[in-house]
Amino acid sequence: MLTLLVVSLLAQIPFEQAIRDIDSPDGATRLRAAQLFKAAGYPEAAVPLTRLVLDPRDDIQIEAIDAELNIFLAEKIVPRSRVAFVIEKRNAVAAESAFASGADAIGARPVPLEVLTALRAAFHDDTPRVALEALYAFGTLAAGATGAPRRELLRASGAELVATLGAPDPAVRYAGLSVIARVFEPAPGDGPVDAAVGDAIVTAMNDPDRTLAIAAIRAAGAMRYERAVQALTDVFQYYRKGETADAALDALAHIAHPTSAPLFDAQLASKSAAVRGIAVEGLARLGEPARLPRIQTALTGERDAGVLLAQAFASAALAKASIDPVADAIKKSKLREQARAYCIELAVRRAADFSTALRDSDPQVRLVAVDALGLSGDRAATPLVEALAADADPRVARAAERAAARLRRSATR
Length: 413
What we know:
- With 413 residues, the protein is mainly alpha-helical.
- The protein contains 24 helices and 2 strands.
- β1 (81-83) and β2 (86-89) form a beta hairpin.
């Protein structure tokens, strides 16, 4: 719903005039146009605004990037006050914050490729803040692409994202690693990861900056990049414990290459609960039901809630046990993100088994179940999520609309 502020602004400046203002030679006029469309969130302005994403002025670029983001966010950010028709106080549309919210940050509307192309061009801006905003906005908006548009997105984006890893500003390099991890995380219908992108991530694992090296390690895992297995194994064996070792083992657990099985088996006896949980996940993702008894025996007497949740995930993945214990863990704040990740993985193959979660009295459980099904790529899940479009909780209803639209797009391409 438009705020009174936006209504007032549009009464002063008709839509057609604001579109023309995008090409004005006057910077103040272009800035005002970007701010107006940022406030209004008009989908029709998305493609014209791409010209301001590449404006010579940094402040205009940032407003335009935020405007593009706000057009497609599931929850619009709107101005709070005005003075003399000039936006004076604004809720910031922070691209990094939206990116951190995950794939459910954006709504059901597909993002035009022209918008993503303009954001990619802005990766290379000389001003680090512009480059950062463009990177995180791109990573956020790219999450909505499916089918043929997603394949084109991956084809066109690899080289430009890899180029950001050579930026002089470490914050830009970190953003590049994070966005590569998000964009190239496997989705239904994807082919193998472009080796040029994956190998660049493996190289970045050797960065002397530990923060960047760990980000690269996590990216290799998120991408399920098998050519990173040996390097990740070497990293784990070198450090053995600590954040870097844990990140390397977690990446191996996500890739789940058969050669890592002995390593996972050995780590079931680790003194670290986090490591035991990661080992269980790795064995579960290998997809071999015969490994489940070994997991169960090794975890006899286990008391850590996170490890027990990982065991429930393994039972669901390997023995098709009920997913209900995993979904139920969403109600526990300390386990919510872990359970959510498991639900997303399980939904790819077991959409029908989410029926109980979709009827749960806790809206948080229904919300996670809907989001997981929306990301599953399984067209059979469409009627399940459509049924929640009238959910009493508005967050669940909006998520159901978003998930149904995503599934319909997946089914038609």
